Amino acid sequence: MTFTHFGLLCSGGDSPGMNCAIRAVVRTALFHGVQVTGIKRGYAGLLRGEFQSMNLSSVGNIIQRGGTVLQTSRSAEFMKPVFRKKAVEILRAQRIEALVVIGGDGSFNGAKALWEEHQFPVVGIPGTIDNDVSSTEYTIGFDTAVQTAIEAVDRIRDTAHSHARTFLVEVMGRNSAAIAIKTGVCTGAENVLLPHEKVNHQKIVDDIQRGIARGKDSSIIVVAEGPTAGRSYEIQKVLRDNYQMDTHVVILGHIQRGGSPTSNDRFIASQMGNMAVEGLLSGRYPTVTVVQAGKVLLEDLANCVTKADHNFEEYQQLAQTLSI
Fold first, then answer.
1. Residue 100 in contact with residue 7, Cβ under 8 Å?
2. Which tens digits make up the pLDDT trace of 80-102?
3. Is 136 in the same domain as 156?
4. CA 48 to the chain's CA centroid
5. Which one of 111, 225, 263, 296 is least enclosed by Cβ atoms within 10 Å?
6. Which of the residues 14, 105, 130, 207 is marked catalytic?
7. 324 in a domain, yes or no?
8. How many structural domains is the chain composed of?
9. What is the pTM of this model?
10. Which of 108-134 are b and which e, b meaning 16 or more Cβ less than 10 Å from the residue's Cβ?
11. How far apart are CA 324 and CA 321, in angstroms?
């Protein structure tokens, strides 16, 4: 099929580098003479017909900006077949022939349904700070989120040392361990508490006391947030009530989702945006742009619609070894 008109949207949580991918999609499509229509606020905006024509000016001066100029959202309606049918009717009424979706596994499940139910051509670009999409080693925004967390922990460590305190620093990532492990290794954290493991409070206390015995007067414990933010407060309470250990909690929260993307996120997002368009034009869909063995490739969409907490788990032992 020869395409003349693409749709483009972001869905789910925002992540630094989405704008770089948007820019690459638009510029690559225009290079090939293909029109691009941006869809505001994801699948919800699609159902409401929130469209904007994209040109070179639309993506000028956005490569350094965090978030997404197209904005994003989550849509409960889109989970129902009747609304996906309506979405395809809206797309075809706009003469949009294929769709590029930037988001995570939930967004890709929506794209997969568009293909399976209506044979509407789709290509996905993985954008989530959690780095938890199956079949890819990397998702756009992860590097920036980690760098933001590292800079925050470095600042907190200055205060921890000044006041001889122990801090529980909670990072985002939901059920993914990737941000916590990389941040822990890169900041020299004394402990990294992962979302899928039971907290060993006695080990935390023993590790801190071992450090005190050799003259260490402050500690940083990196905590993966798990399904619900605020997990650190529960850990703090147990340490205080059961072990008489005073700790302070810092929840980094959504600052990790914003900010100017790192060079790594900019470069990979630019590659992925370009490849998404090239994939559609060469008939390689439904697919997702992925990183495998360090290279940006196209992978079958069906292989990219689940969460995968495989990334960085291999470095858990590294974090434990270096924290002695």
1. yes
2. 999 999 999 999 999 999 999 99
3. no
4. 26
5. 263
6. 130
7. no
8. 2
9. 0.95
10. bbbbbbbbeeeebbbbbbbbbbbbbbb
11. 6
